[in-house]
Amino acid sequence: MSIPLESHHSIEKRDTNANQVSPASSVLEAPIVHQWPREWKAYAALVAGFFMMFNCWGMVNAYGAFLSFYDQHLLTKQSDLQLSLVGATESFLLLFPSIFAGRLLDARRHYYLGFTGSLLLFLGYVLLSFAGGNGMTNQGDYGLVWLTSGLLAGLGMTCFFTYSSHNVIQWFPRKRYIAAGITSTGAGAGGIIYPLTFKFLVANFGFPTGVRILSTVVAGTTLIAFIFGMPCKDVNRRPVGSVFRFSTWIDKQAFRNRSYTLYVIAVALVYGGFYSIAFHVTEWAEVKGFGTEEDVPGGTGERPGNGGFRTFWFLAIMNGYVEISREHNPEWRLIRLTIHSRTSIIGRLASAFFATQ
């Protein structure tokens, strides 16, 4: 998928040149493009993009809460590697098959992707409720947990990830950075709301019923995304052509651009470093004595006679801080990069220090 993203300055330059035309050619004036769209469908698409990100990256960001419950109650016999594989499957399926989803979006197959993503996500989590027996210790079936929340839900996330930002920036050509930033806040919002919702529902209704209620939340928010995720009519359709041709899905020319290739590698390294922390932050916090995890599935969520800070809040807080960096203003680009590089170095040194204590 290749989307021409002009910078703010290139748009201004194009507008300046457009005004320097002869009187004879001024008859063929281009349509006026407002700073903010005047059509309600653009803002509906913005809401849809938010909920798409809410249910793809937001759910991946929340997996640490699920892993904690599996490790303590449902799947205590499985290793950390096996439990992490469920979340890793979600992440992989969200990213890699997006190559194909992006090309389908270029061909304006938006509603096919929206319907498929909504259906797979709902089925993934409603079927997960049947993979844990009554939710008591070691009643879970690891294969079914991976199949439902890993494979099925992960394929559903594939349909939403590229769709969310792809559609929004087409509706907001002059405010694409702000629009993309608003859309991406859905990832942090999902990473805050889903862990807290999962813990509350499981503690009060048990694992099977709690996950079924959670699946209705997924169904409702994905339905909003499906209904309001309308494609922009001003964008030209690019037919898929031969589905068996490599060039149909992969743009080899893009990887000849050194900047783009380095960017892809850098993003891969960021994801590799971040999600190992997101998946295990609750366990690490308890081991280091910063808080306690719940000990009673279907109970109050507290250890008998032992209060203290609940470790699942660490996951919610981490996702909350991510929200601060979601705003995409081109004028803040260098400021964000400077802050990010310095805080990353400090954070990694601090993590290395505390991890050895």
Question: What key attributes describe this structure?
Answer:
mainly alpha, 357 residues, 67% helix, disordered N terminus, globular, single chain
Report on the structure:
- The chain is mainly alpha-helical.
- The protein has 14 helices and no strands.
- It has helices at residues 8-19, 40-55, 57-61, 63-74, 80-95, 98-106, 110-128, 142-171, 176-205, 207-228, 246-249, 258-287, 312-322, 333-355.
- Helix 4 packs antiparallel against helix 5, helix 4 runs parallel beside helix 9 and helix 9 packs antiparallel against helix 13.
- The longest helix is centred in the middle third of the chain and has 30 residues, at 142-171.
- It is globular.
- It starts with 7 loop residues before the first helix and ends with a helix.
- Mean pLDDT is 76; it is low at 1-32 and 295-306.
Secondary structure tally: strands: 0
Uncertain segments are 1-32, 295-306
Helix content: 55-70%
Given helix and strand content, the structural type is mainly alpha
The percent range for strand residues is: under 5%
Biggest sheet record: none
Q: What is the arithmetic mean of pLDDT?
A: 76
With helices defined by DSSP (H or I, 4 residues minimum), what is the helix count? 14
Gyration radius (Cα, Å) is 23 Å
Order of helices and strands: HHHHHHHHHHHHHH
Global morphology? globular
**How many angstroms separate the termini?**
47 Å
Sequence-ordered SSE layout with sheet pairings:
Layout: H1 8-19, H2 40-55, H3 57-61, H4 63-74, H5 80-95, H6 98-106, H7 110-128, H8 142-171, H9 176-205, H10 207-228, H11 246-249, H12 258-287, H13 312-322, H14 333-355
